[in-house]
Structure formats: structure tokens, C-alpha cells
Write a structure and sequence with these properties.
Blueprint: H1 10-35, H2 43-46, H3 52-64, E1 68-76, E2 82-88
Antiparallel strand pairs: 1-2
Length: about 100
């Protein structure tokens, strides 16, 4: 997988290039975190353990790979807004 970046931004492309060597490790950590959370986690909850600039792109990659999905539920954020709860796709369902 290639780290995502904004194609119109040279700094975004440079940041993606620098992040690529560790993005696989970060994806593995995030997937393990979600597998250990039977009720799933919101992005904000995941960001307690990973920087938001690292967590969200890795979560998006895992969704695109079919390893993480929207649980169909929401939970309130710290500010009281609804947030999607993400869950690891059970191993037998993963594509």
C-alpha cells in the first residue's frame, strides 16, 4: 500500500513518502487495537493511542483493504457529536 496524499500538494506527497516505511507497522497496530475492542472504536478513541495524522489514513487503508468496517453504530465524541464506530472485520469475513 502506498501512503495516501493530496496530489495537488508537494508537501503532502513528501510527507506520504516519509511515512511509507512505518505505515505497515502502524496499520498492524491499529488493526490489533480494533481486534482487541469487541465494541469497536471511533476515530477519536483510536487517536488516544495514535496521532490523528497517522491514525485516520491508516484506518482508511484498512477499510479499503476490507479489514475494517463501519459497525453500523455511532458513539458520542468528547464534544457530544456522533462518530462512526469502526470494527475489525472478523477473520473469516475479511477479503
Amino acid at each position: 500500500m502506498t501512503a495516501p496524499y493530496q496530489s495537488h500538494s508537494a508537501t503532502s506527497a513528501e510527507a506520504a513518502e516519509r511515512a511509507e516505511p512505518r505505515s505497515g507497522t502502524d496499520r498492524a497496530k491499529l488493526l490489533a487495537m480494533l481486534r482487541d475492542a469487541p465494541d469497536g472504536l471511533t476515530d477519536q478513541e483510536m487517536q488516544r493511542w495514535m496521532l490523528s495524522s497517522t491514525q485516520r489514513p491508516r484506518r482508511i487503508e484498512l477499510v479499503r483493504a476490507g479489514l475494517v468496517e463501519d459497525s453500523g453504530t455511532t458513539r458520542l465524541t468528547f464534544s457530544g457529536r456522533k462518530a462512526t464506530v469502526w470494527r475489525a472485520v472478523p477473520a473469516k469475513e475479511a477479503t
